[in-house]
Amino acid sequence: MRTRQNIPIFNKNMKVGKKQENIFRIKDVAERAGVSVGTVDRVIHQRGEVSSETRKKVMEVIEELDFSPNQIASSLATSKSHTTAVLIPEANRDNLFWADHLRGIKRAGIEFSAYGLFIDIYTFSMAGTDDFRKKSEDLLKSGPDSILIAPVFYNESAHFLAKCKKRKIPFCSIDTLIEKFDPVSYIGQNSCQSGAVAARLISIGNEPGSNYLILHLTKEKEQLEHLKEREKGFRAFFENRGELPQIHTEDIHDLSQKSLKAFLRKILKNTGDLKGIFVSGSKVHMIAQSLESLGLRNVRLIGYDLIEPNRKYLKKDLIHFLISQQPEEQGYLGIKSLFERNLQKKDVPIVQSMPIDIITRENLELDQGCL
Fold this sequence. Notes:
This protein folds into two domains: about 1-190 and about 330-355, 3-Layer(aba) Sandwich (Rossmann fold); about 190-325, Rossmann fold (3-Layer(aba) Sandwich). About 45% of the residues lie in helices and about 20% in strands. It has helices spanning about 20-35, 35-45, 50-65, 70-80, 95-110, 130-140, 155-165, 190-205, 225-240, 255-270, 285-295, 310-315, 325-340, and strands at about 1-5, 80-90, 115-125, 145-150, 170-175, 185-190, 210-215, 245-250, 275-280, 300-305, 320-325, 350-355, 355-360. The strands form two sheets. A seven-stranded mixed sheet has the order 1-3-2-4-5-6-12, with helices on both faces. A six-stranded mixed sheet has the order 8-7-9-10-11-13, sandwiched between helices. The two termini are about 45 Å apart.
């Protein structure tokens, strides 16, 4: 389902300056017509794809409010109204990681709203590519001024971004980088470097020839692209040190606890003394739960992101290290970069690398004193 969020919702009783009055006038039309500010812009300037029914509804509201199209167009020009469309995975019980991105996106939308920035948010299911394809088509029909995308489905995203490039719609990408379509900026971690950090953490105190397991937990094979980059960095760490550990990799698509427990029993039986498991994404808590149910606490476990299930097992010392990607900051910087580039005509960095923060049980809650 499409999530539309025109940010912000202003209080009409506020005392405002001319620029904000113009924004209110535009938003009045949009709210009465039940459409986005960007749609009002497209109707007035006759650009982008707007259905005849929607166009009629917008024009009726303009007449009802006794605004002339020229007045509205003037308001849009004065306030430099700009619509950024956001295309990211939906945050749900099975995929909490994207809730923090959305929080950062909303924060940026509120901060820059007084300058005419409006945001339309399209969320898609991670269960398959069909929903991504539909939402991306809906987004293009809306004719946005810029796009913020998390291109987690590599092939589908590449196809979509080729269309954006053809239409000359600038975009920023977060979390995953697809370089060939010339993004305004990429905001996220260096996947190879974060994989190397995981390797260093997992190897501390272990013999050079130790056994390690890399797990890519994802229901869709298309989501593996940036996870494989983390694996590449993990392996490169040992190669650069001239070490030859036993590293086994598995792509797991059945994420039920029954299946994960059966897999871990088998792998632990076959690999002997397993020293550590590197989970290349945020679902590391699923492995922690399986290890707990099997009564295994001596396998070093490393994964990503401070979502609540991961925090729970970090506190229990079943997850030993988490690598934080600062998703809220990614979302915020994505909107900020498009705002600065398109409304303020500023140059923005092509790559904005997020720090590779290492979280342990001891520094998870800095305000709680000694645990």
